[in-house]
Amino acid sequence: MSTQASYRSIPVGLPRRLPVVPLPLAGESFFSWVDHLAHTYEVHRGPMMHALGLVQTAPQWAARDLIRYTMQLPAQASRVVGTATGLTNRELAVMTLEDTGPPYTGISAPRMPKETWAFCPKCLTPGGRWPLWWYEPWAVACPVHLCYLVSFCPHCDTPFTPERTS
Questions:
Q1: What's residue 42's pLDDT?
Q2: What's the distance, CA 140 to chain centroid?
Q3: Of the residues 13, 51, 85, 110, which has the maximum number of CB atoms within 10 A of its CB?
Q4: What's the pLDDT score for residue 107?
């Protein structure tokens, strides 16, 4: 069988299985996990989302699209990400806010992560991951480092937004 013929046998619309897939940490958000995958493969989040089979509105909106997937991972998206990673629907669901509360139906959902996010600067040192509970409105302090979460860069006082995490 030629190489060209083997490419034709891949179903259209389904991503190929990634050779290395770091498992998500307990309590990690889908956004953080996809960013960690991108870091593992040394690509930006947009190409990583493409490799996972996730639909994006535009490359410059990859972070916003990834927020939507962190809120709610539709069944089709869960299937293609599962195909690409080998993770089960349940393993993917626990990384979304949909699994922790009422279903999200749109961008105006009251619990949707806002434009500016709160985070623990000590947790996000290089290699740090973003826990799902940081998206919750009640999240104000880090129980690990015993400090308040902040929503601005501690170095330049710029509001912290998903676009700045690339």
A1: 93
A2: 21
A3: 85
A4: 47
Q: Is 33 exposed, middle or buried (0-12, 13-18, 19+ CB in 10 A)?
A: buried
**What pLDDT does 82 receive?**
95
Report the interhelical angle of 30-41 vs 62-71 (nearest 10°): 130
Residues 6+ apart with CB under 8 A from 126: none
Residue 147: other Cβ atoms inside 10 A: 13
Question: What gap in Å lies between CA 100 and CA 113, rounded to an integer?
Answer: 14
- The burial class, CB within 10 Å (0-12 / 13-18 / 19+), for 4 is exposed
CB neighbours (10 Å) of residue 28?
17
CA distances from 9 to 1, 47, 148, 162 (A): 11, 22, 52, 37
- Running DSSP on this structure, what letter comes out for residue 104? P
Is 34:49 a contact under the CB 8 Å cutoff? yes
Cα separation values, 16 from 47, 53, 83, 85, Å: 13, 9, 7, 9
